[in-house]
């Protein structure tokens, strides 16, 4: 993983930091790229591209650093599409869709399928934006400035088992690899479960 991080840093370092920040919805200031990441402020020193959290200055984990670097490397400045797609619709996503559904939607349905109120409380605790046009129990989340995810729950009853899905804004592939989006989707599920009342 450390070698992979260095390769990512090399790819990002060749870009003009001001233009890069503009493309990914970040700010370049005082030789740092600063951007929102989930509910935190992340900072990457330029040109070392070591990630840390503001304002404390604690270093980011290897996982979070990798996610941030993948985002910076992939960002092309495309606007968000405001249209939801499933993992299977992402580039190369069809092959891994079943696995992704297993550790994202199926996991959500298993935890919240009989308690939609708990799902809604967890989504609100994560500053989720309700999406009534999508489904009764649907919320949007923005882990990075130009990436939006949605979690949707269809509660179970006597006739049908509970179902859930994690969806992506259709422009997400302009900002993250398909594997990286799977990590973000899994991260969203973990955060929702952690915030279950």
List key phrases describing it.
197 residues; alpha+beta; 2 domains; 5-stranded antiparallel beta sheet; 4-stranded antiparallel beta sheet; 7 helices; 23% strand
List the helices and strands and how they pair.
Layout: H1 2-13, H2 17-24, E1 27-29, E2 32-37, E3 40-45, E4 51-54, H3 62-74, E5 84-85, H4 93-103, H5 105-112, H6 116-125, E6 129-130, E7 137-144, E8 147-154, E9 163-169, H7 178-194
Antiparallel strand pairs: 1-2, 2-3, 3-4, 5-9, 6-7, 7-8, 8-9
Structure commentary:
The protein is an alpha+beta fold and 197 residues long. It folds into two domains: 2-74, no CATH class; 84-194, no CATH class. The chain contains seven helices and nine strands, in the order ααββββαβαααββββα. Helix 1 packs parallel to helix 3, helix 4 runs parallel beside helix 5 (105-112) and helix 6 crosses helix 7.
Task: Kindly summarize this structure in a few lines.
By secondary structure, this protein is α+β, with helices and mostly antiparallel strands.
């Amino acid at each position: 993983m450390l070698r992979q991080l260095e390769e990512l840093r090399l790819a990002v370092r060749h870009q003009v930091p001001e233009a890069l920040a503009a493309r990914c919805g970040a700010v370049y200031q005082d030789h740092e790229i600063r951007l929102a990441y989930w509910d935190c402020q992340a900072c990457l020193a330029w040109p070392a591209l070591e990630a840390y959290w503001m304002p404390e200055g604690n270093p980011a984990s290897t996982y979070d650093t990798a996610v941030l670097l993948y985002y910076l490397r992939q960002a092309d400045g495309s606007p968000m599409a405001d249209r939801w797609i499933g993992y299977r619709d992402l580039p190369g996503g069809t092959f891994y869709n079943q696995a992704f559904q297993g550790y994202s939607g199926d996991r959500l349905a298993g935890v919240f399928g009989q308690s939609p109120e708990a799902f809604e409380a967890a989504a609100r605790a994560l500053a989720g934006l309700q999406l009534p046009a999508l489904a009764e129990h649907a919320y949007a989340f923005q882990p990075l400035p130009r990436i939006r995810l949605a979690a949707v729950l269809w509660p179970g009853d006597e006739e049908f088992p509970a179902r859930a899905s994690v969806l992506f804004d259709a422009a997400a592939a302009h900002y993250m690899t398909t594997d990286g989006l799977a990590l973000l989707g899994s991260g969203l599920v973990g955060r929702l479960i952690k915030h279950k009342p």
